Amino acid sequence: MLSRAEAGAAEAREALDLLYRRAGRGHVVGITGVPGSGKSTLVAKLIAAVLASGRKIGVVAIDPSSPFSGGSILGDRIRMGEVSGHPSVFVRSMATRGALGGLAHGTLEAVDVLDAAGYDMIFIETVGVGQDEVDVVRAAHTTVVVSAPGLGDDIQAIKAGILEIADVHAVSKGDKAEAEKTVMELKAMLGLALPAVGLKRAVPVIKTSSPRDEGIAELLGAIDAHREYLVTSGQYEERRQAIRERRMLKAAERLLHEEFERHRQGRMADLVAELAAGTVSPQAAARRLVAHIGMEVIP
Amino acid sequence: MLSRAEAGAAEAREALDLLYRRAGRGHVVGITGVPGSGKSTLVAKLIAAVLASGRKIGVVAIDPSSPFSGGSILGDRIRMGEVSGHPSVFVRSMATRGALGGLAHGTLEAVDVLDAAGYDMIFIETVGVGQDEVDVVRAAHTTVVVSAPGLGDDIQAIKAGILEIADVHAVSKGDKAEAEKTVMELKAMLGLALPAVGLKRAVPVIKTSSPRDEGIAELLGAIDAHREYLVTSGQYEERRQAIRERRMLKAAERLLHEEFERHRQGRMADLVAELAAGTVSPQAAARRLVAHIGMEVIP
Which tens digits make up the pLDDT trace of B4-27? Predict the structure, then answer.
């Protein structure tokens, strides 16, 4: 099913719809961080901690393949080490949609498959460079942003935009001397930011060290506490519904693109010609496009 | 008109459609580069060079406001210096759609307005962190990626994904000793990459120094040469049509989002309830959504 979801196989549509209805129990956790943040090693440790708590854990690792080498940008895929082969863990790597990022269409269906298969927690892991990150955050119940001490100011500037979307912050490489400084800086930024962006809750910043096994249990505790917080504050159902609606809108967008491609030389040919001649604006053409496709897909 | 385009004012729709039909002469150039690359200073120099060639130049500068400070992430807005107030230059700053980036809806309409007003060249300038960059590239006839010597490997990894989309590379801070190394590295990467990504043309890498006024004329020459290349190879019309179709699809996506928001408590309430109950999958809901909206917007 995962392969079919990834391939976007049409014949998998009905099965995926059935699986979707059986999904919904799992806690979906997005984990993102810039390359070099030590995120992959941290994720492997976190998986071990989830297993130690007696839960089953599924992982969808987003693999941004390089347009040049065809291989992973990071070169080092998730370091599963001690947890690989454990019967309660399942890891799936999926390629991104292309060089410009964004989740592959099958990613969230893959999460459904793992969820329906009874995994208690499902991680979506990205390298967090651009659109992937945004898409992952929008699909997860809980988002963890991993920062590393000593990454340059440019990186920090890039990350500034995503600070507000983290539910939990992890600072990796906690054994380094600068780690404490990074923790303090993050806390200071978040302290300033909380009122400004209307956050209602103090966002935890957890210092971790993968080689020393420090902070891992605390990080898992913070992730679990965030779900608990969502449930008790009544935001859990709200967030899940927002995810469902976004998935519907994304699927609708995809439908527009596919149907336009499919019919551009057929019944859309007039529209394409008018666009080329400049006699219709993109805005006006958009309304005609939606009307065309709407009439065609009436269920 | 620029203010109305930016505000997305409904009453501006018709006027923008009329302006769109008068646009299409200008050369739209997207310029992107990470924070700290010295891009803003380089753009100011480039504007002076365009003016010196006797052309009118419009600039739409995308300003990613910080979710925390409310101000610009970079802190330093475009340094217009010597060119500000020149009668043949017009600069407009526009905010991004939010912390997660992506062009504001009015950005491309603003380009139309400047184009229809007779500006020969229109720059769209971004800080190039994420979705903005992608959107800009997809809207421009020619894309310039600015790299700076000495930015870390992490930045380079992030940029790896966007290398293939540059039509012209500029290396800023050419007075620095490491600049030549950066030029060589870029050329080496591009040399490896050209066959791999099917590029048909050697992508120029221009070393520039803003304080020394070096490489600026060459950079403008490379930008002009790229348009010439597009025209003579027959790709110009192809690229313009791709931009028009993408704008149509983007506008159609926006229509879906707006209509869904508008009717979610009215005629879409059943769909929302079924999504919440889990009795319809996002995929199936998407078809119903498109059918609903399609019937409503029939022109």
Answer: 887 777 778 888 888 998 999 999
Q: What is the pLDDT of residues B240-298, one digit of tens each?
A: 999 999 999 988 998 999 999 999 999 999 999 999 998 999 999 999 999 999 988 77
Q: Do the Cβ atoms of B49 and B220 come closer than 8 Å?
A: yes
> What is the structure's pLDDT at B297?
79
B285 sits in the region (left: phi over 0; alpha: psi -120 to 50; else beta) called: alpha
Which residue type does A130 have?
G
CB-CB neighbours of B280 under 10 Å: 22
Residue-wise over A219-241: b if at least 16 C-beta within 10 A, else e?
bbbbbbebbeebeeeeebeeebe
* Both tokens assigned to B166: 């540059």
| Chain B nearest C-alpha distance from A34 (Å) | 8
Cβ of residue B198 closer than 8 Å to a chain A Cβ: no
Nearest to B99 among A70, A155, A164 (CB): A164
Q: Is the separation of the CB atoms in A89 and A51 below 8 Å?
A: yes
Could B295 and A295 be called an inter-chain contact, meaning their C-beta atoms sit closer than 8 Å? yes
Confidence grade of residue A72 (pLDDT, cut at 50, 70, 90): very low
How far is it, in rounded angstroms, from Cα B216 to Cα B175?
A: 13
Domains (ranges, CATH) in chain B?
A: 2-232 (3.40.50.300), 246-297 (no CATH)
H-assigned helices in chain B: 2-7, 13-22, 39-52, 107-116, 131-139, 153-160, 179-197, 216-232, 235-263, 269-277, 282-297
